[in-house]
Structures are given as C-alpha cells and as structure tokens.
Design goal:
Elements: H1 2-25, E1 36-37, H2 47-52, H3 54-65, E2 68-73, E3 76-81, H4 87-91, E4 98-99, H5 101-112, H6 121-132, H7 137-153, E5 164-167, H8 168-185, H9 195-223, H10 229-245, H11 248-252, H12 259-270, H13 275-290, H14 293-306, H15 308-324, H16 337-340, H17 344-357, E6 362-366, E7 370-373, E8 379-382, E9 387-390, H18 393-397, E10 426-427, E11 430-431, H19 449-466, E12 467-471, E13 498-503
Parallel strand pairs: 1-2, 3-9
Antiparallel strand pairs: 2-3, 4-6, 5-13, 6-9, 7-8, 10-11, 12-13
The chain binds protoporphyrin IX containing FE (HEM).
Protoporphyrin IX containing FE binds near residues 121, 128, 292 and 293.
Length: about 500
C-alpha cells in the first residue's frame, strides 16, 4: 500500500516537473512583442482567473505590464489592449489581418450549435442594418410600444392596484424580452388590442422567456466550454425545447412578423441552410437581439430608485414633454421619434448607466504576423494565430483619469451646463474619440442600437407613468455583478433586488 502511494506521488511530481519545464521552454517573448505572461500552469495559463473575473484579472495585469500585454489562456495567446486612443487602429484594420468572424463562428457553435456554410458576417450585418434601422425603425418602435402595453398592462397579475413584490431584474428582463420577442417574431393575431390575442401573446412569450432565462444561465459556461456533464444535458434539453417553440414552420404562421425576421429567414434560405439549422439560428438571434435591453432597463431603474435626484430629473423631463404637447401616454398609439429624441436628461442617465454596466469584449483573430502601431507611436509585433482583445469597460469606461469617481452613478455626467450632450472627455490631455463603448464600435457596433434606445425609453416611460415603484429595502446596497458575464455585453446582478409596485390611480 505504502509503495503504491509513493509511486503515485512520484508520478504526480514527475508530471508537475514536466509541465513546469514545458511552460519554461514553451513560447518566449520575442523583441518587439508585448510583455508575455504565461501564468504558472502550462497550456491552461490564466484561463481560470480570466473566466472567473475578467475585469479584475485584466486590471491586475495592466498594473503589472502596462496597457498592452499578452496572456496565455487555455492554449490560446490573447493580447489585451487597454489604451482607448489606440482602439481605432484595431477597429478599422483590414479583415485579412484582423478577423472578427472566426471567433463569432466558434461562439455560435458552442452556445447554439449553429454552423452556417459560407457565413459572411459582413453580408449579414448589411441585411440586418437595413431591416432594424432607418425606414423600418418607426414600425418597430410602434410595435414595441403596443407589445410593452400588452405585457405590462393587460396582465391582471401585474396591472393591479394592490402592491405586489417582485425582483426588479425579473420584472425588467421579462418585460423587455417578451415585448422585444413579439416585436421581432410577431404576434398570435394581427390586432394588438384584441384581448384574446393579448392573452395568447402573454402566454406564449412567457413560455419562451421562462425557457430562455434558464438557457441564459448556462450560456457563459457554454461559450467557455466549461459545462459539467449535467449542465451539458440540461442545455441540450433547453435548446431542443426552444427549437420546438421557435421552429421556422411555427414562426411562418405568426402575424405582424417584422421585416427583419422575414429577411433573415430569406438570407438563410439563400445560403442553402436547411430548416433545422434555420430554427437554431432563430434561437441565436433571439439571444443577440433580446439579451441586453432587459438588463439595461434593470440597471437604469435601479439607479433611478437609488438616486432620488436622478429620478426627479428624469420624471420631471418626461412629464414636461407630455404636458407641453397636451398628450397622455395612456391615450397614445405610440410615442413619436420627435418626442423620443428630445430627452437629454434621460439620454445622459442612460449613457451613464451603460458606462457602468455594459462590458463587451471586442475581439479579433490575428490572421498574419503584423505590426500594431499605437496612438503614441509605440509599435508591437502580433503573431499569427493569437487573439487580440479590447475591453472598453476597463478603459475608457471605468478609467479614473477620464471619469472622476468612475464607480459612481451621476445622471448628468453626459450633460453640458446648457443642457446639450457632453461629448468631450480626455485622457493624457488628448480628446478621446471613444469615451464609452457600450454598443461596441466600428464593424462591431450594435445594429439594434436605435431600436434598443427607443424600446428602453418607452418601457421606462410606461413604467413610471403607470406604476408606483419603490425599493422594498431602500438602504440595501446595489448588488455586485455576476462576474462570469464580463465580455458578453450587458452585465447582470449577482442577485435580484426586490421592489414593490402597483398601478397608479389614473
Ligand atoms: C442595451 C441594449 C444593447 C446593447 C448594450 C447592445 C450591445 C451590442 C454590442 C456591444 C454588439 C456587438 C457585438 C460584437 O460584434 O461583438 C451588438 C451587436 C448586435 N446587436 Fe445589440 N445591444 C443592445 C440591444 C440590441 C437590440 C434591442 C437589438 C435588436 C433589436 C440588438 C441587435 C444587435 C445585432 C443584430 C447585433 C449584431 C450581432 C452580430 O453581429 O452577430 N441589440 N449589440
């Protein structure tokens, strides 16, 4: 027995020594390359710290190495760039050197089991831009208004004059997700105000949301390929259920389908994608289009509830707009773009909330050995096969040199004293082009941004106009972030915040 134990220990020691040697004599930093930090565990490198809390890890590494460095994570070498003056050089670099499609393809497969032949993200973006912006925007905004009213006001459980307690995250996410889903994927019947259609829309959107929410809890682990066997089983069964609910046959029968939905389906047909894969792509798009706006409404409402001066300013602006036009939101059949565009206080509060809680990575695969020239003239060699990653959440968004007390919510941070939008922010004495990047930038910019802003505004206006909302425990601290979500868009709270709400006497 003792000799078996000794042999086992010796074996383990040998493996450790071999791994340490491999790490020591593996890749070494070459002249002209960014500082290299491989971590102590060969191959795995810093993968665990990266996945656990990317913001902390990348900030710690910046303190050690400066604003550009390369780390090893799960066999991949990732160069992190945190100088916002130099982001431009990456955002617009040619696709033959820095490619953004390859990593997107890996994630599509890992998270949604979607594989598209000849997938060209550029062609897809052109199609999406045409259908989510410009002349389609007013129709989508109006549909969102009606669908928000259905979700918030036609559900007797919610629209009641009795105080009700609910998690604010749950209320915000489910409302925006369900209304956003109905807006893009259509309704049960054509007439938004028919109560039978509304009841069916409430039921179906709730079923989709309930399943999607469970899937959403597992997606970050799926993206990092770290699901346990039990979680793999669970994600497979959730995806299968959602594919049934979202089958293209079923979607084809829905009323008020958006131009976006029909064009996306046609785009897949043109690519030669079979029906099964089309349905999978529909679930992927549900995540792309509906996973950010709900959390955004949550954070915005939470900050407004925690900061009464911000709430008073936003509510005062909203009431002033409707009063001056002698309009009541309850009697409106949509809020015009002209009204949605004249809310500088709301816009500043929204931008401030996004600065604090939007944390997407901007990622590129390095397709050939190349030189990266930073804004201050420094030049670095990047190696073919590595990955380049920008993390605007750390800099510019949380950079104390750019924003005084960056961790604090100041609703008027993006307002000039004359009430216009403040756009001048500085680092190192130089004006910044990219001072906050919640929507991504360049090729990675969010295609649904204008619809998202209109939708968030309409949801908050409806909630503040129709409901009394208050925190159950006004003294409770703002919850911490769920740290595994860094890199994937809007952050989510570690735990929900309970609020009380009831319909106002109108
Ligand atoms: C607060 C809300 C939102 C935020 C912060 C946000 C943020 C982003 C970001 C950062 C990206 C770039 C991802 C990348 O290329 O790496 C993106 C892409 C995208 N967003 Fe949004 N988004 C929001 C809401 C929406 C909404 C409501 C829609 C649609 C109705 C939408 C549609 C899209 C689409 C279609 C893409 C392109 C995805 C792709 O290239 O595959 N987004 N969004």
């Amino acid at each position: 027995m003792a000799s078996l134990l000794t042999a086992g220990l010796l074996g383990l020691l040998l493996v450790l020594v071999l791994l340490l040697l491999a790490s020591r004599f593996g890749r070494a930093r070459q002249p002209g390359e960014p500082p290299l930090d491989k971590g102590f565990i060969p191959w795995l490198g810093h993968a665990l710290e990266f996945g656990r809390d990317a913001a902390k890890f990348m900030t710690d590494m910046r303190k050690k190495h400066g604003d550009i460095y390369t780390v090893q994570a799960a066999g991949k070498f990732v160069t992190v760039l945190l100088d916002p003056h130099s982001y431009e050089a990456v955002l617009w670099e040619s696709r033959s050197k820095l490619d953004f499609g390859q990593y997107a393809r890996i994630l599509m497969d890992r998270m949604f089991e979607v594989k598209l032949p000849d997938y060209d993200p550029n062609a897809e973006k052109v199609m999406m831009r045409m259908t989510l912006q410009n002349k389609n925007l007013p129709t989508l905004t109006k549909a969102m208004f009606f669908n928000l009213r259905t979700i918030l006001l036609s559900d007797p459980d919610r629209a009641s004059q009795q105080w009700k307690e609910e998690g604010l995250f749950h209320l915000s996410y489910s409302t925006m997700f369900r209304a956003g889903f109905l807006t893009l994927y259509g309704n049960e019947g054509k007439d938004y105000e028919d109560s039978r259609n509304q009841a069916k829309d409430l039921a179906f959107s709730l079923e989709i949301y309930t399943e999607f929410y469970k899937l959403d809890r597992l997606l970050m682990k799926a993206a990092r390929s770290i699901l346990s066997a039990a979680e793999k089983k669970e994600i497979n069964s959730l995806r299968k259920h959602l594919w049934k609910l979202l089958s293209v046959k079923r979607l084809d029968c829905r009323a008020n389908r958006s131009v976006w939905l029909d064009s996306y389906k046609q785009h897949l047909v043109d690519l030669g994608v079979d029906e099964n894969m089309q349905t999978r792509a529909m679930l992927l798009q549900l995540w792309s289009t509906q996973s950010n706006a709900g959390p955004a409404v949550f954070w915005l409402l939470l900050f407004l509830l925690k900061y009464p001066s911000a709430m008073a300013a936003v509510q005062g602006e909203m009431e002033g707009i409707f009063r001056s036009r002698r309009q009541k939101i309850g009697q409106m059949h949509g809020i015009s773009q002209e009204i949605l565009d004249c809310t500088p206080i709301f816009d500043s509060a929204l931008n401030e909330m996004l600065r604090l809680t939007a944390a997407p990575f901007i990622t590129r695969e390095v397709l050939q050995d190349m030189c990266l020239r930073l804004a201050d003239g420094r030049e670095y060699s990047l190696r073919k096969g590595d990955r380049l990653c920008l993390f605007p959440f750390i800099s510019p968004q949380m950079d104390p040199e750019i924003y005084e007390e960056p961790e604090k919510f100041r609703y008027d941070r993006f307002l000039n004293s004359d009430g216009t939008e403040k756009t001048d922010f500085y680092k190192g004495g130089k004006s910044l082009k990219y001072y906050s990047m919640p929507w991504g930038a360049g090729i990675n910019v969010c295609i649904g941004k204008f619809l998202a802003v209109n939708s968030i505004k309409q949801c908050v206006f409806l909630l503040l106009s129709y409901f009394d909302l208050e925190l159950k425990d006004p003294k409770a601290a703002i919850p911490a972030f769920d740290k595994e979500r860094y890199g994937f868009g809007m952050l989510q709270p570690e735990k929900d915040v309970i609020i009380r709400y009831k319909l106002k006497a109108q």
